[in-house]
Amino acid sequence: MNQLTNYTFDELEIGATATFERTLEEKDLILFAAVSGDINPLHLDPEFARTTQFKERIAHGAWSGSLISAALANVMPGPGTVYLGQSLQFQRPVKLGDTLRVELEVKDKQERRKQVTFITKVVNQQGKTVVSGEALVMAPSEKMTLDARTLPTITIG
User: Fold this and answer.
1) Cis peptide leading into residue 41 (ω within 30°)
2) Quick one: pLDDT band at residue 149, thresholds 50, 70, 90?
């Protein structure tokens, strides 16, 4: 079983970095639409999408943004992190089969509230930035290692 180990506020240093990767699959488009309620045909209807400037379906922008949340929760700072805010600039579309890498970098720490600002960037397999911004979190004060949860298999039908 995989384990998740966090970085405490005190362990985080300005300039520290971490990454997280995920590939966009068909099921991601469908599940994200189902969970979010965003059923824009640009994401779900190949015929409609062919009539747009993208010529094919693209991911919900918020799906790419949600990968930043996953990186903060699972990698750095990790378990115990409280996500406080995020700015996002969408720069390129994400298409089926694209592999995205979230890049996190500690920009600033605020001792009084144990808050950390991260520079966030999401790049595709060609190294092109698709999303950029900053995230603000409250970092954990206690060190912990936990077993990663196994998610149930979801059938789309």
Assistant:
1) no
2) very high
How would you classify the pairing of strands 115-123 and 99-110?
antiparallel
DSSP codes of every residue in 41-67: HHHH-HHHHHTSTTSS-B--HHHHHHH
Question: Cα 102 vs. chain centroid, distance in angstroms?
Answer: 6
pTM value?
A: 0.94
Name the amino acid, one letter, at 92: R
Return the C-alpha torsion angle 140, 141, 144, 147, nearest 10. Answer: -20
How many CA atoms does the CB half-sphere of 27 hold within 13 Å?
A: 7
CA distance 132 to 15: 17
pLDDT of residue 155: 86
Rounded CA gap, 75 and 143, in Å? 13
- Which pLDDT tens digit goes with each residue over 71-106? 999 999 999 999 999 999 999 999 999 999 999 999
